[in-house]
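Sample pair:
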Amino acid sequence: MRVFISADIEGCAAITTWDEVHKGRAGYQEFREQMTAEVVAACEGARAAGATDILIKDGHESGCNLIVSRLPDYARIVRAWSGHPYVMMFGLDESFDAALFIGYHDAAGSDSNPLAHTMNERIARLSINGELASEFTVNAYTAALNRVAPVFLSGDRGICASAQRLVPGMRTAAVSEGFGRATMSVAPAKAVRMIREGVEDALKRGPSQISFTLPDHFEVEIEFSNASDAYRSSFYPGVEHPKPCTLRFVSNDYFEVLRAIRFITV
């Protein structure tokens, strides 16, 4: 069984402020270690369930956050950014059996995590087919594009609920919850245990238990916080500019959606 892990940091246990997730700022080292511990726990759960190959994509900011010396010897890792439209899912292809999402956070426009955002802080809201979309939404559809089942997610309570609505039957581990600028979190050690046990259970139940397919048509709207950012990106081929801060892109081809999002949001 081949397993792909996409790892972020803002949904890891106890993380609350931006200073804890940006390299070089106070708190980053502590929560870089927590991100690593949660990813290692996912690897251990996957291995216990029979995974023979695990590929990890470090998906936060620089793409170079995980402490690689702590990763198990049966895992491989993709670091930094290739420029490919898969972004946080780069390295995934149809040879994988399951996708795991660790440290994920809720979407821009939601209130379940004080660090909620989508792609970057310039995006006020992203929707797909009229529904608020998170980074998980974009990446789960990428998994579906490759016929890979999204089977497990850990993160804040909001993104866990959203993931279960989008992918019925998906296993999640809610390790924190936001209240304004505050969070309430399980202890980091408990989060690690929840992830290890949750991943093992999800994979033992089998990716075949997840039925998740791509829609036939995609209408994407991206609302920027600043009208000048929307104007700059409005020249991407096929993009409509219906409002000062809003862009719209329509396609039946999800790879074209990914390509548009990749170039519009940079």
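Residues 8 and 60 are 5 Å apart (CA to CA).
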